[in-house]
Write a structure and sequence with these properties.
Elements lengths: L5 E3 L2 E5 L5 H13 L5 H11 L3 H6 L1 E7 L2 E10 L5 E9 L8 H15 L4 E5 L5 H6 L3 E7 L7 E8 L1
Parallel strand pairs: 5-6
Antiparallel strand pairs: 1-2, 2-3, 3-4, 4-5, 6-8, 7-8
């Protein structure tokens, strides 16, 4: 059973509930758009960035709140083997970028992965986020095709736990 709730730095973490799906999707879209992507790019990514109640049920989705406002989220799913967790989403809402929330969410994701017996976490990162993941200890292992944009590749990174 993964850790359920923790708090520090004025952020509280809790498991997502199905009713969070719409708010988490809006947050993911705002956070992605922060990097200056145009409308066509954002429309192409919309389906991949949609957080559904089914995903909340099937994955470990953690919500970060500050003063009862959703400030960020992280989602881990089973990987392609029992010792792998896949970081599916990690988004911090734009007013909270640079606040330390991203690092807090990543540390919590590591706790969850360890609780599931994972030896490492893999992520297909937005190129703008690669440096953040590397600061969190992830190492580049290759690239993966984008699920949203034909011909675009994403850096593939791994954190050894």
């Amino acid at each position: 059973m993964p850790p359920s709730v923790s708090s520090s730095n004025a952020f509280s973490l809790r498991p997502a509930v199905p009713e969070d799906a719409e708010a988490l999707t809006a947050l993911a879209l705002r956070s992605k758009a922060y990097w200056g992507y145009d409308d066509a790019f954002m429309k192409a990514c919309a389906a991949e960035l949609t957080i559904t109640p089914a995903r909340i049920a099937d994955e470990d989705v953690i919500v970060a709140e500050a003063d009862n406002v959703i400030a960020g989220m992280v989602a881990l799913a089973p990987g392609d083997s029992a010792d792998v967790r896949e970081l599916e989403d990690m988004f911090v809402d734009t007013p909270f970028i640079g606040s330390g929330l991203g690092a807090q969410l990543m540390a919590h994701a590591e706790e969850i992965a360890r609780a599931h017996g994972a030896a490492h976490i893999d992520v297909d990162a937005d190129p703008n986020a690669q440096g953040f993941y590397e600061k969190c200890g992830y190492q580049l292992t290759g690239s993966s095709p984008s699920a949203s944009i034909p011909g675009r590749t994403l850096p593939r990174l791994r954190l050894v736990l």
